[in-house]
Amino acid sequence: MDEIRGDETGGGTGGDGIRGTAAGTAPVPLSVLDLVTVGQGRTATQALRTGVEIAKLTEARGFHRYWVAEHHSMPGVASSSPAVILAHIAAHTDRIRLGSGGVMLPNHAPLVIAEQFGTLEAMAPGRVDLGLGRAPGTDGATAAALRRSDRLNEGADEFPQQLSELIRFLDDDFPDGHPYARIHAVPGPVQATADGGVQSAHRPPVWLLGSSGFSARLAGTLGLPFAFAHHFSAQNTIPALDLYRSSFRPSAVLDAPYALIGVSALAADEEREARRQVLTGALSMVRLRTGRPGLIPSPEEAAAYDFSPMEQEFVDGWLSNVIHGTADEVRTGLDDLAKRTGADELMITANAHGGDARLRSYELIADAYGLPRPA
To answer: Cα Rg for the chain, rounded, in angstroms?
Structure first.
């Protein structure tokens, strides 16, 4: 496969839609990462409806983008099909950017992703992002089932090649003589070359996602925007961002680095209630890390759970990376994090058992920063 060239990755976007504008008194643009979590006693239908409500609320309050993340074989996370969810969200929103945070590229054929996100771009012109990761988004056995192969490490190692192929499909620019030169991702640029064809000038900007240095360096080398998973790899955040910035080479996409970080944050009317809500996510992570994934437990179950000393140590460490409390406390935590990391954008994920708590959190954070209210 051809070497990836940074000056080819823009698709004519010129950075359009990548750099957001901070609203209200927020230090940087604020965005949303939705895992479409399913709590005990609730259905995936309810979780997806909550996703629509969150997208509509945050669009109205001036958040920059709404992303969903690909996960598999996790009963408490209903975001296995980002493109399907984003199509649903697109039908209920008008302005907020929509994207994947991310699609796990080794799980899919690049042509399929190009077709899916070309379709999304046709549905919501000029507001679709394509965030890509190289992890499976699940355990090894499930990844093998998805990929019809047990060569999982090989799949991750081939990520740069897969990325090159995907970008070629998005831009429809395989060179003459290439085996794929006559294959086209549709919807896509080829439609503009057909008789009477008219095609949008936009195509989804590609983001690289990561929780370590690999994607940070690759994104910098290619001049692409970078999203780091601070919400579950906080110890690597600053080293990865430093590596991204030091590796950055200007491209047709960006003339300077642009990095967002995913951050767990939940605001409630009282600090005690915030703690009660985030403990549900901590217990869910304990169960996931010990091979017992399930639905998100209720606050009552989480409060009554008898954590072993080892589990409690994990919970304490986990919650130390979740900004939670009253709206003022969360605002202070987000401000400090933005200053400490130099992140260009904060993408907030609010994990809790029920949709009401998550919606209230985004509302309180918007109020704390004086984000606009719809007329």
So the answer is: 20
pTM above 0.90, yes or no: yes
Which segments within the chain are labelled E, that is strand?
30-34, 65-68, 97-104, 128-133, 206-210, 226-228, 259-267, 323-325, 345-349
H-helix or E-strand spanning residue 242: helix 237-247
Q: In the numeric block, which tokens belong to residue 34?
A: 């939705």
Of residues 166, 156, 160, the one with CA closest to residue 106: 156
Q: How many CA atoms lie within 13 A of 150 on its CB side?
A: 1
Task: Output DSSP code: residue 232.
Answer: T
Give the start-end residues of each E strand in 7-110. 30-34, 65-68, 97-104
Distances (CA, A) of 39 to 75, 232, 303, 360: 9, 20, 15, 16
CA 135/CA 210 separation, integer angstroms: 8
Whole-number Å distance between alpha carbons of 370 and 367: 5
pLDDT tens-digit map of 135-194:
765 667 777 777 656 665 555 578 999 999 999 999 999 999 999 999 999 999 988 887
pLDDT per residue as tens digits for the range 191-220:
888 777 777 667 899 999 999 899 999 999
Long-range CB contacts for residues 136-140, cutoff 8 Å, separation at least 24: 136/72, 136/104, 136/106, 136/107, 137/69, 137/70, 137/71, 137/72, 137/104, 137/107, 138/71, 138/72, 138/73, 138/74, 139/73
User: Distance between CA 300 and CA 361 in Å, rounded?
Assistant: 19
